[in-house]
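User: Please run a holo structure prediction.
Assistant: Happy to. Please share the sequence and the ligand.
User: Here you go; the ligand is beta-L-fucopyranose.
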Amino acid sequence: MIHTMNNQSTPSSIPIPAVATITGAPAPFGPIPSARQMRWHAMESLMFIHFGVNTFTGVEWGGGNENPSLFNPTQLDCRQWARAAKDAGLRGIVITAKHHDGFCLWPSAVTDHSVKSSPWRDGKGDVLRELSDACRAEGLVFGVYVSPWDRNNPKYGSGDAYNEYFASQLKDVLSNYGEVSEVWFDGACGEGPDGRRQVYDFPKFIDVVRTCQPNACIFSDGGPDIRWVGNESGYGSETNWSRMNAKDFFPGITGRNEDLARGQRDGTDWLPAEVDVSIRPGWFWRAAEDDRVKSPQTLEKIWFESVGRGCNLLLNIPVDSRGLVAPQELASLKEWGNLQHAMFAVDFAPKAEVSASSTRLSTNASAFAATNVTDGNPNTYWATEDAVMNGTLEFQFKSPVSPRVIRIEEAIQLGQRVDGFHIETRGGDGVWRKVAEGTTIGVRRILKLQGEGVNGVRVVIDQSRACPCISRVSIY
Ligand code: FUL
């Protein structure tokens, strides 16, 4: 999982599988991901950074009346942030360009409530410039969180005038920093019953993103490209459909968290889930939480329960008031990176003899062979005949192995199909035993195993909604 996306610092440079160009290939089942969603799936885990005036006040939701002179990081170094992300296998950085307090980390053309009114770099600094440059230099993608809720701007609550303002601010932030991989629209609004009420013009905002950054994925509670997972605790649902009836969901929706977590089995749109979670109790850095940074073991658990369940992980590492990733976070991220290197050092699957219970017998049978799941090529996959909704992939090892992790991926360019599966292993006594089971697989399912002296592994697809199409099995 770590460092497999070599230095692809822009979404458009990430290779994606071609859609069903193989003769005799199964027809797509249900909605399929767009090219930009495919690239987003390939990013797997990213760093989230909350940074702004709140970093200097210790408040989670700034009131919007903070004096910009508060913002004065003395040692800001975006290369340090980017290297910390890389060490932990995170493939990009999404930063709070503007949080709810309205303070902009770049010299916005439409408000003075920004770095240009701060003493940092004599008002000539631009965090987004430094970070986007650092990301490119380190081979990471770059994304922005831009809060629609703005507690500073006097137009907030005015309807069209604020929507115009926000749209021009978006244009500003999306036009000057190269390719942006993800635009994060937070649905939160804490104005309360007597507060200002703003009806957002999301179609307009989406239009700005599509025009300025056609390869960027848009996140919100209801997409259009990525959905919120429904919790901020760091886990996805074991049953996870990357499908939703998108028209029923919108930013700020409440009471649908279960649907957001599980997806909708019969949803008409491809809308995968992202898991956002902070390495600290709060989203912003404060010294009082320095001893509450999540351990490498907790980060590993979060990774298995998010990325391992077919979500992307957006792990928040709040930068401190010096403008650096704090030592506590650095240590935890580095050790987590080491754990990943050790865990994923050897994939036994490509060395195994692979066979399948049945293979698609079209004019082009070798195109759908079982061995496709270990060829490292995301374009190829094992498939059965259209009428065959189950099947087994078997891996035989010449000498016994002790598998700790299994990773399975569907060829999602043909939609999400599998509805039930289990894993069996065979030890020295020759008996196959069930060791794990699940419902959905989707873009990826990664499970822990505890096998010793195993000479065979089976991936058994018990139920699939259309013939199974499996593109990868790795056994570590
Ligand atoms: C929430 C916000 O209100 C928090 O402050 C934080 O930014 C989190 C990621 O999203 O909705």
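The chain has two domains: 30-343, 349-475.
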